[in-house]
Design brief:
alpha+beta; two-stranded antiparallel ribbon
Length: 94
Amino acid sequence: MDHRIKLKIADRSYRQVIHTEEEEACIRQAAQNVNERIGHLSSRFAGVSVIDILTIAALNESIEKVEMQKRLADLEAEIASMSSVLDNYVKSLK
């Protein structure tokens, strides 16, 4: 299903090749999120250049990604710990 879609981010158009409908939905949602972030930052920092707004938006997105990766690692560790406890409990029943 490879085809190109057109996205508009910060008043500029970009083409993106997509492979599945799920990927298209994800990319369109990401573009919408970026535009919303840019809109919010533009109103908050009136008079600041688009490049600076994009830089702040990219930094904020990266911070959120790092925080989510940390949370995921913590959850994976908790799951591993709970799995070990459960395994030990099941073994004790035998």
